[in-house]
Amino acid sequence: MPYINVKITDEHVSNDQKKAIIKGCTQLMVDVLNKDPATTFVVIEEVSTDNWGIGFEQVTQLRKCSTVGSS
Fold first, then answer.
1. In the chain, what are the domains?
2. Which H or E run contains 37?
3. What distances in angstroms separate CA 7 from CA 15, 33, 67, 68, one per listed residue?
4. Among candidates 54, 37, 45, which has minimal Cα distance to 1?
5. How many Å apart are CA 41 and CA 26, to the nearest integer?
6. Could you read off the pLDDT of 13-62 as tens digits, one per residue?
7. How far is CA 59 from CA 5, 30, 63, 66, in A?
8. Which pLDDT does position 67 carry in this prediction?
């Protein structure tokens, strides 16, 4: 009974994109481990960019810096 926890930043991920993530993760378990999709659980957690850091910075700050001058 696989349990897959996918964590993504909460940056406007659509319902269709979430469905694709669930389908893709489930299919991976079927293809690689021959698991039953009916007992494969996929949980998507959306994390605020304030609560996600890379290096010394919050993703919120990194996103702001990457958009400066790119308009």
1. 3-67 (3.30.429.10)
2. none
3. 15, 22, 23, 26
4. 37
5. 8
6. 999 999 999 999 999 999 999 999 999 999 999 999 999 999 999 999 99
7. 20, 33, 6, 10
8. 73
User: pTM, whole model, 2 decimals?
Assistant: 0.83
Distances (CA, A) of 50 to 1, 13, 41, 64: 33, 17, 27, 12
Known catalytic residue at 37: no
> Out of 1, 2, 23, 70, which one is annotated catalytic?
2
